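Re: beginner question about structure tokens

> Can someone show what the tokenized structure looks like for a real chain? I only ever see the sequence side.

Sure, here's an example I had lying around. Input first:
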Amino acid sequence: MDLGTEAKPRERRRGERVLIRMAVQVNGTGKDGKPVHSPAEAVVVNRNGALVRVPHPLKPGSSLEVYQGQEKKANVFRVVWCSDRPREGRHDVGIELIEPCEELWGIRFPPVQPGQPTEAGPPRGI
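And the corresponding structure tokens:
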């Protein structure tokens, strides 16, 4: 096995991922175009977004408000993708943060260093 090929997918990531189980509340648009107001769970997070599990499929490209705990202010994300089929009654949904912030998911991320990618791009070396 070529270890160089294993690193390529990770290089596309804009930040380290953190496994977490956090109850959140989401407000957004379902794939059917109807409003969705639902409890959800964040399961993988980073400084730019998350993988959340939601009972309803969400519309890719739409905005998603995510409330953590008792916070009254939501963070706004864009739905990047949504699984077609639910797993254990929930859809996996990839979301990305619209406005960057230093503290997200109860984690204070270090500032972006010069030269560190802030946008998704092709893997290095291509």
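Each token stands for a local structural state, so reading them left to right follows the chain. The chain has one domain: 16-105.
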